Amino acid sequence: MADVLDLAILGLLHESPMHGYELRKQLSTKLGAIRAAISYGSLYPTLRRLQTAGWITEAGETPADDADVPPLTSRRGRVVYKITAEGKERFQDLLAQVGPEAYEDAAFGVHFAFFSRTEVDIRLRILEGRRRKVEERREGFREVLQRAAERLDAYTLELQRHGLDAADREVRWLEELIANERSGRTPPPRGSEGELRPPAPRSTDSAPPLTARPGPDDSAE
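User: That's the sequence. What structure does it adopt?
Assistant: Structure tokens below.
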């Protein structure tokens, strides 16, 4: 997770200098895949480590705004961080790192967020690796449904179906992205119709009510 967090922070600072609280907000909104891993307890030690490594530096302070100050924190001016030339090189190195860890949920989301700064061959390798990962996950759901469906209660069974449905949709989405990369097409601009984005999980609020499937005895009535 350390490299993923480094990649996320360096990528955001590559776009613009920010103070720590703004960084945390951007990490949560733009890179929701690692939201659970971000806290003030992990963010600021990471910023200090990146600063010690020479990858980021302080660019001054901004006055604290009451609306932006979290409860129980100081209102003093906040330190603004910016990426250094060495940090930009480190960012590119992290972007080019491709392996099983890049296909996991959090790492893939961060890599994908910075695909516009990533070489085509690296993008393809990450997309293809992620597809294999999700296909394996999909097969796991199918196996459970085929072998153990009769032993699962209705809610556990529905959860497995939900996982299979989400995996199916992500595989289709990844295949579309891979086809676009191979043909030289890119996703439409943000906010346009038909924008390619990770498939959203099905809302449990709108899910149909659970009903028991008829068994052999029921069909005979």
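The two ends are 57 Å apart (CA to CA).
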